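> forwarded from #structure-qc
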């Protein structure tokens, strides 16, 4: 067993919403297996998944065995909990691709590969559901759970109330029975006695514990965590651009870092407990620092460091911190030449872009021509000349002193970009093609 008490650990981190009686006693008695279900409808996890993943991480640290369940079968149906519409269904090749991508991401949090008795395992409920006939399922499983019991669940009631005109399909209604069967299957095949998830999953999870009790006479348990919201009550994990993904191709490490470093003080104090494995003492010390000098934002900086390093790498974290300094650092010129293309484009997302001929740049083009004739950064050569004389024009964050200075291939960032700056805040990215 690990050195930490799992339930006490979740309690001080604010990660328990509800817990079935007897759960803590079971965990104190023996190494226990627990699972969290993960929706495989995309080939990457997003930060909304991180609460469940961190529960599994703490569970393994406490000496227990985590099971990550990819909901291949249930993902083909869609959980009605907290949803107003049915999901788009996915095919098997897509499912398998998504599963492999998700496993690689989970391996950054969980130990799958060691020979420790509590090494994590990954399962997919499609594997035990794909050959289970409908008739067999309703005969074996359906008879043990009444419609009255299923209708009483909050997730079903809310879905019906929200869609009074359209109702709820039988496909969705069957979801809790399928999730309940997952728990029964893992109880029988892996000795799994605990299921964890968000508070919206309580009804589905307890259907599983009821099925285990009725069919096997066994004891099984449940823990749910609160649904995470921002301090202002808005939904956690969403930005104007949509989800914040763990895959660097979907959300760059720079943008990922920026999400965490820019959260409010109240959210940082909450998130650092949930999304890191820093100790209670370390977090208390950071909170004291924050109280003394909130402007230094030690909570946000440490939160962003821990989670960016965990999801991406220490190198990605360092690059993101450097990139964040480009707009105001006196080392900006050096940083610009070091960062990769994806980070460069993330930092300057939304700035105007102009295409410029590679032949022109290769031959060396006077800055005054480049920024007027080739790219309309300035409306006239007179304006460009005047602003240059006033120290208001920069190329790659280096002040331009001569409007006729030659801009050539040595100025290219990542072999194809030039960053022009007009005044303090107006940036333009020249794409050399």
């Amino acid at each position: 067993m690990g050195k930490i008490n799992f339930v006490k650990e979740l309690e001080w981190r604010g990660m328990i919403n509800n817990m079935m009686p007897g759960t803590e006693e079971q965990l104190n008695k023996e190494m226990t297996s627990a699972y969290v279900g993960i929706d495989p409808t995309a080939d990457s996890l997003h930060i909304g998944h991180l609460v469940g993943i961190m529960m599994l991480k703490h569970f393994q640290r406490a000496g227990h065995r985590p099971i990550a369940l990819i909901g291949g079968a249930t993902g083909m149906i869609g959980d009605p909990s907290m949803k107003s519409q049915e999901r788009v269904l996915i095919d098997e090749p897509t499912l398998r691709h998504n599963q492999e991508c998700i496993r690689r991401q989970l391996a950054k949090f969980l130990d799958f590969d060691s020979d420790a008795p509590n090494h994590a395992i990954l399962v997919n409920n499609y594997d035990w559901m794909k050959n289970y006939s409908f008739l067999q399922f309703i005969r074996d499983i359906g008879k043990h759970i009444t419609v009255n019991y299923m209708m009483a669940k909050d997730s079903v009631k809310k879905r019906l109330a929200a869609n009074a005109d359209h109702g709820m399909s039988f496909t969705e209604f069957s979801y809790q029975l399928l999730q309940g069967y997952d728990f029964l299957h893992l109880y029988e095949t892996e000795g799994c006695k605990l299921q964890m998830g968000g508070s919206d999953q309580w009804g589905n999870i307890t259907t599983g514990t009821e099925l285990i009790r009725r069919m096997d006479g066994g004891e099984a348990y449940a823990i749910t965590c609160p649904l995470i919201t921002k301090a202002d009550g808005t939904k956690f994990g969403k930005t104007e651009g949509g989800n914040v993904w763990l895959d660097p191709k979907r959300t760059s490490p720079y943008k990922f870092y920026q999400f965490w470093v820019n959260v409010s003080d109240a959210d940082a104090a909450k998130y650092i407990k949930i999304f890191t494995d820093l100790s209670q003492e370390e977090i208390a010390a950071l909170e004291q620092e924050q109280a003394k000098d909130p402007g230094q934002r030690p909570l946000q900086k440490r939160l962003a460091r821990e989670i960016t390093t965990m999801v991406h790498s220490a190198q990605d974290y360092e690059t993101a911190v450097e990139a964040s300094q480009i707009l105001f650092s006196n080392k900006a010129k050096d940083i610009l030449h070091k960062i990769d293309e994806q980070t460069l484009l993330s930092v300057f997302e939304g700035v105007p872009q102009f295409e410029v001929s590679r032949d022109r740049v290769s031959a060396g083009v006077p800055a005054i021509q480049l920024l007027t004739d080739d790219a309309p950064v300035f409306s006239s050569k007179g304006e460009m000349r005047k602003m240059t004389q006033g120290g208001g024009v920069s190329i790659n964050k280096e002040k331009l002193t001569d409007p006729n200075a030659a801009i050539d291939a040595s100025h290219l960032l990542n072999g194809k970009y030039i960053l022009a700056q007009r005044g303090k805040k107006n940036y333009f990215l020249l794409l050399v093609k």
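QC bot note: The chain has a mean pLDDT of 91. The CA atoms of residues 153 and 427 lie 54 Å apart.
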